TrEMBL record:
It comes from Triticum turgidum subsp. durum (Durum wheat). PANTHER family: ATP-DEPENDENT RNA HELICASE RHLE-RELATED, RNA HELICASE. One of its GO terms (cellular component) is cytosol. This is RNA helicase. GO terms for molecular function: ATP binding; hydrolase activity; nucleic acid binding; RNA helicase activity. Coiled coil: none annotated. Residues 198-347 form the Helicase C-terminal domain. Keywords: ATP-binding, Helicase, Hydrolase, Nucleotide-binding. Residues 1-174 form the Helicase ATP-binding domain.
Length: 483
């Protein structure tokens, strides 16, 4: 704030929940102070999504409660007529999404941005990843050279760094994203399972492991999965809110408002819809699909365990996701180890539990399997619900097609992590489920795992061939003795 108040251009990077919005709103209100209807637009804030723009508008009204400054909102999804009316009122501050704002600029010839003194590119990395680079450059060229420009972001990709060089004058770079990538108060739980077992695992977590008093955000890869999970929860008697990019803006606002008011405790989202959403008291995050980039994982889980609160990030890991898990822990510089197998637990239960607790206390991450008995039990119920719901049946194929497209377009893991993933030892049950299973059940699982890993020296055909030879030999032997 001191650098911004001094009039300098600033490029600031910090994780979600660190106060970036207040960092640019407070100096803006201090600089503009009073309403000036004849001056034109004096401040411009560009946000990547309608939800974030609406949220910023709300914070601006709250912080500027005792100011007479006028603020306008220009976002996609609203009627063009109403937004022309917003501009006709000569607001001091405009909060906008780049696509709609640039479209309006192209339609209104006499709309000048030369009066803008204060420009903010909020969640700038997302502005670029969502494809707004062209619109941003067009808007930039219409601004005065004497403006103060601020860029706030969670990360700094190469394209954004080049944009910052072009748009900011000798910027002061502030990085608060280096020391603590993940809150020390956040528990990380990585569960290995198959793709088709995720529904059962999620329902078990929501019902049995997550308190009904805790708010949970569930990240999925596509809008079809958002709708599928929402209907499934509804069929199971669970009420959820949802948000995705193609969703009607009014509906999104209603759903997010209900979640913020704690009328619902579950929020199902895609990454695009969740960008910049501020849920102050969020308790848990569930990563239904493993994020392809470590920084995306950090952005998701950074919403939990803020301001001294604790929380948990539950992440599902399929065999295809293991290289991404390795990449993440290389990025975090955190040790990663598999949970001890059931045979290891049976040999020294107390010693292994002590070792696990010590590893977790040392900041290591332990990944482990979801109990198969729980998955099998819940899967039967899920199949029954789906088969009896036409809406869920209709969504199964779109979900499968969308997920295939998602897999084709997501970033690839490093080649080194792909190689290392092939050599990883088999993991045991995740430590979280130690209280679920009795010693005799652990023994049964250990026996089952030994059967799975058993590899006979001969194939069935070879064994049958030898058996046939043996029978033939006995027959011949009998024929010789008893002609």
């Amino acid at each position: 704030m001191p650098l911004i108040l001094a009039g300098l251009d600033v490029a600031a990077m910090a994780r979600t929940g660190s106060g970036k919005t207040a960092a640019f709103l407070v100096p803006m209100l201090q600089r503009l102070r009073h309403r000036d209807p004849g001056a034109g637009i004096r401040a411009l804030i560009l946000s990547p999504t309608r939800d974030l723009a609406t949220q910023t508008l709300k914070f601006t009204h709250q912080l500027g409660k005792f100011s007479d400054l006028k603020t306008g909102l220009i976002v996609g999804g609203g009627s063009m007529e109403s937004q022309f009316e917003v501009l006709a009122d000569n607001p001091d501050i405009i909060i906008a999404t780049p696509g709609r704002f640039e479209h309006i600029l192209s339609m209104v010839d006499d709309l000048s941005l030369r009066s803008v003194e204060y420009v903010v590119f909020d969640e700038a990395d997302s502005l670029f990843s969502l494809g707004f680079a062209e619109q941003l450059h067009k808007i930039l060229h219409k601004l005065s050279d004497t403006r103060q420009t601020l860029l706030f972001s969670a990360t700094m990709p190469k394209a954004l760094a080049e944009f910052a060089k072009a748009g900011l004058r000798d910027p002061q770079v502030i990085r608060l994203d280096l020391d603590k990538k993940i809150s020390p108060d956040l528990k990380l739980a990585f569960f290995t399972l198959r793709q088709e077992e995720k529904l059962a695992a999620l329902l078990y977590l929501v019902r049995e492991r997550i308190s009904s008093e805790e708010q949970t955000m569930i990240f999925v890869s596509t809008k079809y999965h958002v709708e599928f999970l929402n209907i499934l929860f509804r069929e199971e008697g669970l009420e959820a809110s949802l948000s995705y990019g193609a969703m009607d803006q009014e509906a999104r606002t209603i759903h997010i408002s209900r979640f913020r008011a704690r009328k619902t405790m579950l929020l199902i989202v895609t990454d695009v819809a969740a960008r910049g959403l501020d849920i102050p008291l969020l308790d848990n995050v569930v990563n239904w699909d493993f994020p392809a980039k470590p920084k995306l994982f950090i952005h998701r889980v950074g919403r939990v365990a803020r301001q001294g609160r604790t929380g948990t990030a539950f992440t599902f890991v399929t065999s295809e996701d293991m290289p991404f898990l390795l990449d993440l822990h290389l990025f975090l510089s955190k040790p990663l180890r598999p949970a001890p197998t059931e045979e290891e637990l049976l040999k020294d239960m107390d010693g292994m539990n002590l070792k696990i607790n010590q590893s977790l206390a040392d900041g290591e991450t332990i990944y482990g399997r979801f109990p198969q008995t729980i998955l099998d039990l819940c899967s039967d119920g899920v199949k029954e619900v789906i088969s009896g719901c036409t809406d869920l049946i209709a969504l199964e194929k779109p979900c499968a097609n969308a997920f295939r497209l998602y897999l084709k377009t997501r970033a690839m893991p490093s080649k080194e992590s792909v190689r290392r993933a092939k050599d990883l030892p088999r993991e045991g049950l995740h430590p979280m489920f130690r209280d679920v299973l009795r010693p005799d059940e652990i023994s049964a699982i250990a026996f089952s795992e030994r059967l799975k890993s058993f590899r006979p020296k001969q194939t069935i055909l070879e064994a049958e061939g030898e058996a046939a030879k043996s029978r033939s030999s006995k027959v011949m032997h009998c024929f010789i003795l008893f002609p």
